[in-house]
Structures
1.
Amino acid sequence: MSEPYRYFLIFLGAVLVYNIILIRFIALCPLIGVSTKVETSIGMAMSVLFVMTMATTVSWIAWNYILEPLGVGEFLYIPAFILIIAALVQFVEMVIKKVSTPLYRAMGIYLPLITTNCAVLAAATEAVKPGFLKLNVPYHFGLLEAIIYTVGVALGFGIIIIMFACIRERLETSPVPHSFRGAPIAFMTATLLSLAFMGFANLLGL
Amino acid sequence: MDWSIVWKAALALSGISLLFGVLLAVADMKFAVEIDPRIDDVLSVLVGSNCGACGFPGCQAAAEAVVEGKAAADVCLAGGPDIAREVGRIMGVDVEAKERGVALVFCKGGLTESPLRAVYQGINSCSAASKISGGGKACDYGCLGLGTCRNACPVNAIIIDPDHRRWINRDRCTGCGICVDVCPRDLIQMVPRDQEVLVVCSNRDKGKVARKLCSVSCIACRKCEKVCDFDAIHVENNCARIDYEKCTQCGKCIEECPNNVIVRVVPPRNYKPVTSAS
């Protein structure tokens, strides 16, 4: 297996085959919460992509140069990664506020929310700490692989949440039975989408 | 057991925290956005209960609007003239002294005084009940007592007792006017804080009907009108109303009223008459 092909498989696996929302049911909260409008879901997807990539990069450095050499990574990875994500989001928020006010206005509300987004922690943990990744590809936990994997996870998240927002905008005007309005029909839609995505299983041997 | 793991864990986590702490501190200085210091000043004098009566989402937004010139200094309805003057001092503008009222439910009848004509078993809210043939209360103008105003009050100034009588804590009431808007029967109005004599009924039925519906209803007998020396009380649409400008609060009408609809309420304890803008 050539190196570029391996990277491609890692990316594809993260986006489609092991999609974070529909296959692994992580980050269902933003799926239901921030998918009522396409506009806001795009904002959320961009923010997640941005924060997730940065979080994994810094977590990778922390894991390989602080936690692992000290031998404490095995039980300290969750508090350490959460700390990293929270601090990073704060930092990014400050920078964006200074550099670009329009971007801050667009992303501002979602950035603090992402601090507690389980998908960010999940992506960072899987990409950095051995023992969590489920991809059927040789994975060596290098920085480049980790970033490729995380970008894939974030894109998978973004595609689903934007797609879902489009469906929900159509659902708003559809004759849905009264008792199914809102979250119930959204969850049922998510179930059907999830079934469809399970069709990607074993794609290219993943 | 190897205890070195403990200090290693502490070292790792405190190290990362320290690193990010320093990073954030530096970033806070380096990327500080110039914020008008008046925003914080204005925010500190506002009431701070985030009641939203001003129309802005919370006191922070109201303070920003004041500083940006999008709102006047008397933006804070709940704060009243004192706070408006404080805000005006920060912003460097003169604020006219404007009196904030206190809420009053213009209905005295509980279940004992005004019997039910039907049993309402729907959603526990006045707005829902009033849409279903006017709820269970016999009087079409009276308070339904299901607590829509109580639930809307941001400072918990309204209490409803088991007999469906309303008690407004006039010390707590900030005069924000939210309850005035939510009452489906428009029974709540703002009255001046120093007004003690009030007609607590809104029934506009003719006297005979009103007497039958409720034992504490205004029957439009006009006795109060005749006894008033100052031409301050008048019966309009079968219900007495006091002109607060003319009323001297002598209390003659209270004694005269056959149905005890006119009452003397205690003014709020923390009430200070507005003298002049300083």
2.
Amino acid sequence: MIAIIFFFFIRALYCQCWFSSIIFSQEILPLDALNIFVSGVIAVWLGWYITRKLTEQRFLKEFIIKDICRIEEQIESFEKLINTNNATLQSIFAELNDLKHKIERFDRTTKLTLFSCNDVNYLNIYHTKLYKISTEEINLPADSRNELQSICDDFVVCLRKIVCKINNM
Amino acid sequence: MEKNVSINIATDFSKNLGVRVGPSSGETFFEEILNKKYIEAKDTNRQLEINLDGASPYGSSFLDQSFGKLFREYGKDVVDRIIFKTQYFNWIVDIIKQEIWKS
């Protein structure tokens, strides 16, 4: 549609003799040839370089977001455990230990990249809250499940905020 | 220089830890091992090395009834005198220092 409109616009200009003063020389000077060559090289290099940088950045973002997804999966595993009748101190501690190691790995990875994020501190705070409530007794009391579930919800939302931040960088 | 006083929780106490009170609990750990070794370290002006690896789970109530009680009895000296050794539970050391001892 735009092409059609553009075509009629150019045709109108031609009919009004807007192009009559334009003269095309058939001579190609050495300087013109060099100009075309250099411009072409610069355009190709810029295209390659910018595309590569964008691809690298996209790859790194997706890599880090995958790490966050693993943390979320670990939280889901913890949620499943606390909603069973088999949630013992030993099993809960094992889950929290795995979760902590994943958070630390994520923190160390982001510090290597440009995607460093202060929200990792909140992840540690949520982890500590889960730890304090769920490792008080040998068997998890039923009345602490709601509180733990609420903390898990906030935990996951925090993770998703980090994903949005990283995606917008 | 004299060697530090040391505790390996897994070998000196138990590999399977309990909670606040009861078998292999924080209370028992404090009464039978931690308190005695701490006093020994303090009297001989040495540090107390505590190895956390090999034992689990380190529940919040276990930590509070052992390390928390030690801090409540002896104060800030505990923070300066105790050295934790662990490869797998650095986060437990952070919990002890930041939450239990609030240092």
